[in-house]
């Protein structure tokens, strides 16, 4: 089988490519250049797609003895991930760019090009399992499981994907990398949003959207408690950084309950007002009929709650068996049956 190994310059993708070679596949490595102006070096575990990452990917390919190329997808990434990220925050939503990147870049742009070039599959270093029948499952390493960010992929995308690391823990991957002589064995994992290397999402958005001041209001009294420079700096469920001028009468902390870009208003209130019992999501990947009993996950590293899900037209209706706090439009909801991914979508609305 001819496979294309997506090599980010990290330890996971390097070992995934190595295992594809061991499996007897004809492997070609490719590094995705996603930044128009990549930094030379990473700062610890922040950011990715630097020139350092490209060099690390090439060195790993040299050790494995496989051909290696760099594909410039910066324009596509800018349009499909970064621009949508900015637009979502401007509209008061809370997007997950990793989910979008997997949908639009790794398993759309890259996969389409790979198949057009005659490759049979794309190999990545995601920590997830894929059964022979195309069923996506959680990784055996719960701390590194990435099935959530893959949960909106369509069956035809999963059919051409390979995830060699799903049966290994991250510790085992690092030991294997060292044994293979891969210099990235101890390289820190990337975290946070890859295209915001300093982690200051609010400042990054302000540079692109400008200052849009408005009031912070109390949901119960309607009183104005403070001011802000832009609703994009807030997310539903946020507690810190509100800079309110007065405490709540009962002394309890306030949280962001609602974000309204149209009026530039941020509404805050008590924690229990964040409880969500039902979600309506787009039906990105939901091939099932009728009502299914399942478990729902709404954050990449969050827990699951019992749920019932039903597809209605282009919508996915998810009724939660226990309330989830701080869930916001724009996030992904992924539905499971044990460790098996049933599908999911992007949240449109929530209700208590």
From TrEMBL:
<feature type="binding site">
    <location>
        <position position="32"/>
    </location>
    <ligand>
        <name>ATP</name>
    </ligand>
</feature>
<protein>
    <recommendedName>
        <fullName>tRNA-specific 2-thiouridylase MnmA</fullName>
        <ecNumber>2.8.1.13</ecNumber>
    </recommendedName>
</protein>
<feature type="domain" description="tRNA-specific 2-thiouridylase MnmA-like C-terminal">
    <location>
        <begin position="289"/>
        <end position="347"/>
    </location>
</feature>
<keyword id="KW-0694">RNA-binding</keyword>
<dbReference type="GO" id="GO:0103016">
    <property type="term" value="F:tRNA-uridine 2-sulfurtransferase activity"/>
</dbReference>
<feature type="active site" description="Nucleophile">
    <location>
        <position position="101"/>
    </location>
</feature>
<feature type="site" description="Interaction with tRNA">
    <location>
        <position position="331"/>
    </location>
</feature>
<feature type="region of interest" description="Interaction with tRNA">
    <location>
        <begin position="144"/>
        <end position="146"/>
    </location>
</feature>
<feature type="site" description="Interaction with tRNA">
    <location>
        <position position="126"/>
    </location>
</feature>
<feature type="active site" description="Cysteine persulfide intermediate">
    <location>
        <position position="194"/>
    </location>
</feature>
<keyword id="KW-0820">tRNA-binding</keyword>
<feature type="domain" description="tRNA-specific 2-thiouridylase MnmA-like central">
    <location>
        <begin position="204"/>
        <end position="269"/>
    </location>
</feature>
<keyword id="KW-1015">Disulfide bond</keyword>
<dbReference type="InterPro" id="IPR004506">
    <property type="entry name" value="MnmA-like"/>
</dbReference>
<keyword id="KW-0819">tRNA processing</keyword>
<dbReference type="Pfam" id="PF03054">
    <property type="entry name" value="tRNA_Me_trans"/>
</dbReference>
<keyword id="KW-0067">ATP-binding</keyword>
<dbReference type="Pfam" id="PF20258">
    <property type="entry name" value="tRNA_Me_trans_C"/>
</dbReference>
<keyword id="KW-0547">Nucleotide-binding</keyword>
<dbReference type="InterPro" id="IPR023382">
    <property type="entry name" value="MnmA-like_central_sf"/>
</dbReference>
<feature type="binding site">
    <location>
        <position position="125"/>
    </location>
    <ligand>
        <name>ATP</name>
    </ligand>
</feature>
<comment type="similarity">
    <text>Belongs to the MnmA/TRMU family.</text>
</comment>
<keyword id="KW-0963">Cytoplasm</keyword>
<dbReference type="Pfam" id="PF20259">
    <property type="entry name" value="tRNA_Me_trans_M"/>
</dbReference>
<dbReference type="InterPro" id="IPR014729">
    <property type="entry name" value="Rossmann-like_a/b/a_fold"/>
</dbReference>
<dbReference type="InterPro" id="IPR046884">
    <property type="entry name" value="MnmA-like_central"/>
</dbReference>
<keyword id="KW-0808">Transferase</keyword>
<feature type="binding site">
    <location>
        <begin position="6"/>
        <end position="13"/>
    </location>
    <ligand>
        <name>ATP</name>
    </ligand>
</feature>
<dbReference type="InterPro" id="IPR046885">
    <property type="entry name" value="MnmA-like_C"/>
</dbReference>
<comment type="function">
    <text>Catalyzes the 2-thiolation of uridine at the wobble position (U34) of tRNA, leading to the formation of s(2)U34.</text>
</comment>
């Amino acid at each position: 089988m001819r496979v294309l190994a997506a090599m980010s310059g990290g330890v996971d993708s390097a070992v995934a490519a190595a295992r594809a070679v061991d499996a007897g596949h004809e492997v070609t490595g490719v590094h995705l250049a996603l930044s128009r102006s990549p930094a030379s070096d990473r700062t610890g575990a922040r950011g990715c797609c630097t020139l350092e990452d490209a060099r690390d990917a090439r060195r790993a390919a040299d050790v494995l003895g496989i051909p290696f190329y760099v594909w410039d997808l910066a324009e596509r990434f800018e349009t499909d991930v970064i621009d949508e990220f900015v637009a979502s925050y401007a509209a008061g939503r809370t997007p997950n760019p990793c989910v979008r990147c997997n949908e639009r870049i790794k398993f759309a742009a890259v996969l389409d090009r790979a198949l057009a070039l005659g490759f049979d599959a794309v190999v990545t270093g995601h920590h997830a399992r894929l059964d022979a029948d195309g069923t996506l499952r959680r990784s055996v390493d719960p701390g590194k499981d990435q099935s959530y960010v893959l949960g909106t992929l369509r069956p035809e995308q999963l059919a051409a994907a390979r995830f060699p690391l799903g049966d290994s823990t991250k510790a085992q991957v690092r030991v294997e990398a060292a044994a293979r002589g891969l210099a990235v064995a101890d390289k820190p994992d990337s975290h946070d949003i890859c295209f915001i290397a300093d982690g200051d999402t609010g400042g990054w958005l302000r540079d692109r959207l400008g200052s849009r001041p408005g009031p912070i209001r109390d949901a119960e009294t309607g009183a104005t408690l403070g001011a802000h420079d832009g609703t994009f700096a807030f997310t539903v469920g946020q507690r810190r950084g509100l800079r309110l001028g007065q405490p709540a009468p009962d002394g309890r902390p306030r949280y962001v309950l609602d974000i309204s870009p149209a009026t530039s208003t941020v509404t805050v209130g008590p924690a229990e007002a964040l409880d969500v019992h039902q979600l309506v999501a787009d039906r990105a990947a939901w091939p099932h009929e009728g009502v299914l009993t399942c478990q729902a996950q709404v954050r990449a590293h969050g827990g699951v709650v019992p749920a019932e899900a039903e597809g209605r037209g282009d919508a996915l209706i998810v009724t939660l068996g226990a309330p989830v706090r701080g869930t916001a439009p724009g996030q992904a909801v992924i539905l499971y049956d044990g460790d098996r991914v049933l599908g999911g979508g992007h949240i449109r609305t929530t209700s208590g």
